[in-house]
Amino acid sequence: MKSFEYGDNEISTKEVFAIVSNMLIGFGVLTLPRSIVTVTKSVDGWISICIGGVIAAFFLWVIAKLVSRFPKKGFYDITTAIINKPAANILTLMISVYTMMFVCYETRGLASIARLYLYDRTPEEVICLVFLLVLIYGVSGPSIALLRVNLMFMPIVISIVLVLIFMNIGFFNYHQLKPFFITEWVDVVKASKETVFSFLGFEVLLFYNVHINQPKKTVKAALFGISIPFILYLVVFIFLIGTFGVEVVSNTLYPTAELAKQVEITGGFLERFESLFFTIWVMTLFNTASMAFDVTILGLMSVFKKAKRMPLILFLSPLMYIIIMLPQNIKEIASFGEWISYAGIPVAFLLPLGLFLTAKIRGVKGNA
Questions:
Q1: pLDDT value, residue 183
Q2: Which among 28, 73, 319, 338 would be 20 to 30 A from 95, CA to CA?
Q3: Which residues contact residue 208 at a Cβ distance below 8 angstroms, ignoring those fewer than 6 apart?
Q4: For residue 278, how many other CB atoms are within 10 A of its CB?
């Protein structure tokens, strides 16, 4: 008999699927096509997306297999069981710092895009502050509440992307995709790095494992979850090339946003479809940033046993706001994001792989 009820503190495979999908659907949809085309100079970038997706799926499988060995245990307890408590303290703090910086980047990036397309007269400082306050409200409650929100927001976000593509289907020109297979394999592999960066975020499963009530199904649910953003990235990339062409996409800061601006619907508030698109897109950015913020808090509470959630939030928030406002322009924001992405490689790939292999070799398992 399943123990899952919507009033308890557990999540089913549906929430695992939603966690992975929402963490990976973020700024990548807006920026990934330009990053790839800048390197490949052709539609061959779809191969880069496939390579990056396969790499990310492998390491997600590693994480899912790792957490399924330790039912109802968080990252701190898993690391303590596999290595020791001092190592668990250091590694947990490292991930907490990484996720905090990830939240700062998401918030700063959101403010930059919102000011460009929605609030051109509102200072970015104000937009960042408002979004940070919303995040504070979101993480003030229990973690399980955020995981429930994923299920509610995800269909809406996916739907708006599908509507965006459908509304622009008349502008799609198959001939824009030609010629095929003209990019050197070195450039295809190099461009796949950007795809890998866009797939970072699934490492939050290391912390939310404490809520999963069907550990044996975690692997299947997680891999199903990564398939959604993978297909979404692939479809959006091909559609953008077919609509705008390689040159336009490579020279446009946010090509997907320009696709939204191109939609024309007569009557009322729908005349500016891009406003509706970004309003809904904020949902997925909220999901991503709030879960990363929550993981930061969970990590710190694991290390500092006497720490409470609200005092930690109130302590971290001013520090995060200062970090958020450090980048002064688009170039610095992009550099900040790249730095965060490189930091995510050991956190999402190398560390879980090392823990998984060590657990397998030593035969360490946890009990629910």
A1: 87
A2: 28
A3: 11, 19, 143, 147, 295
A4: 22
Per-residue model confidence as pLDDT tens digits over 153-185? 888 888 888 888 888 888 888 888 888 888 899
Q: Distance from first CA to last CA of the chain, Å, rounded?
A: 16
State the pTM of this model: 0.92
Contact between 238 and 46 under an 8 Å Cβ cutoff? The reply is yes
Cβ within 8 Å of residue 57, ≥6 positions away: 223, 226, 230
In angstroms, rounded to a whole number, what is the distance separating the alpha carbons of residues 256 and 237?
Answer: 9
The dihedral sign for the CA sequence 307, 311, 314, 318: negative
Structure tokens belonging to residue 261 = 């601006």
CA gap 70, 215 in Å, rounded = 8
- DSSP secondary-structure letter at 178? P
Query: What is the rounded CA–CA span in Å between residue 328 and residue 308?
Result: 33
Positions of the chain with pLDDT under 50: 1-6, 368
